[in-house]
Write a structure and sequence with these properties.
binds phosphoric acid mono(formamide)ester, alpha/beta, 5-stranded parallel β-sheet, 314 residues, Rossmann fold
């Protein structure tokens, strides 16, 4: 089995077959992470560039470890130490990097559409590690993998995303992937942090958290992007925390065997209390471990798709 595209740009429009293939392949790689020696040879001889134009802890380290565990050669590019500081354009930067004979590019950028743009100027496989407010497909996949690992299914589960949905690329990737796999998806946040006409995503939209949490299996809590607080999108952190913070008291509205998720980085005491973040239903660190397995699967599967087989990007 092979993926239908040689790039991973978004989960919107990604088929159920491709999602299932990535998730099923991730299971084998997750087992490798529990072995004493966590290295396998599939990407031996391939060179992967991690092109991060925005800050990252989890995604960058996770991709680098995934590449190394697949025996790829890896290069880490960061804008602060590159000629981007001297005014070099994105196109010139990536074409110069490709001239050094690289095979795959993992890219994070503050602007929506940069990963797609790279597919138009490079021959390498492109993996989106987060672009603007658009998508963060490997985060969506690792969240879905973590849910599937616990419940052995996605179809029929009720998943609630809480917080800044409007600016969240994690939310978008979760919504598209979960819906394709048959979950029932709801979002909750202040009106100012919900996407315009969010109902058109085919999801349930709430501004009252206690109502939103009724009958939910999985709560995925999104980071309040404190850098946007200057824009006055909610009156105060204290008010946000009172209305939308996930506390232990609120958990009793959830279904039995519920799960608490957060993609990180967390603002403890604002969107999530310590007791919830570190409580028995939290899979937050399991998400991070699973992220490596999912990224290994994505790198492995994309490296096996020939350019002429790519049906997704014309
Ligand atoms: N979840 C996530 O994307 O975290 P980083 O910004 O640390 O990569």
């Amino acid at each position: 089995m092979a993926l239908s595209s040689r790039h991973l740009l978004q989960l919107e429009g990604t088929s159920k077959e491709d999602l299932d293939l990535i998730l099923d392949t991730s299971v084998g790689f997750r087992e490798i992470l529990d072995r004493p020696i966590k290295k396998v040879p599939p990407l031996r001889g391939k060179t992967v560039v991690n092109l991060f134009y925005e800050n990252s802890t989890r995604t960058r380290i996770s991709f680098e470890l995934a590449e190394k565990r697949l025996s790829a050669d890896t290069i880490n590019f960061s804008t602060s130490t590159s000629s981007v500081k001297k005014g070099e354009t994105l196109r010139d930067t990536v074409r110069n990097i490709e001239a050094m004979k690289i095979d795959m590019v993992v890219v994070r950028h503050g602007s929506t559409g940069v990963p797609y743009y790279l597919t138009q100027c490079l021959d390498a496989n492109i993996i989106n590690a987060g672009d603007g407010t658009h998508e963060h497909p490997t985060q969506g996949l690792l969240d879905i993998f973590t849910i599937r690992q616990k419940y052995n299914k996605i179809k029929g589960l009720r998943v609630l995303l809480v917080g800044d949905i409007r600016h969240s690329r994690v939310a978008r990737s979760n919504i598209w992937g979960l819906k394709t796999l048959g979950a029932s998806v709801a979002v909750c946040g202040p009106t100012t942090l919900l996407p315009y006409e969010a109902e058109k995503f085919g999801i349930d939209v709430y501004t009252n958290l206690d109502e939103a949490m009724e009958g939910v299996d999985v709560v995925n809590i999104l980071r309040i992007q404190l850098e946007r607080q200057k824009a006055g999108l909610f009156p105060s952190q204290r008010e946000y925390s009172n209305l939308f913070g996930i506390t232990r008291e609120r958990l009793k509205r959830l279904n039995k065997n519920f799960t608490i998720m957060h993609p990180g980085p967390m603002n403890r005491g604002i969107e999530i209390t310590n007791k919830v973040a570190d409580g028995p239903a939290s899979v937050i660190l399991e998400q991070v471990t699973n992220g490596q397995a999912v990224r290994m699967a994505v790198l492995y599967l994309l490296s096996n798709v020939d350019a002429h087989e790519d049906k997704a990007i014309e």
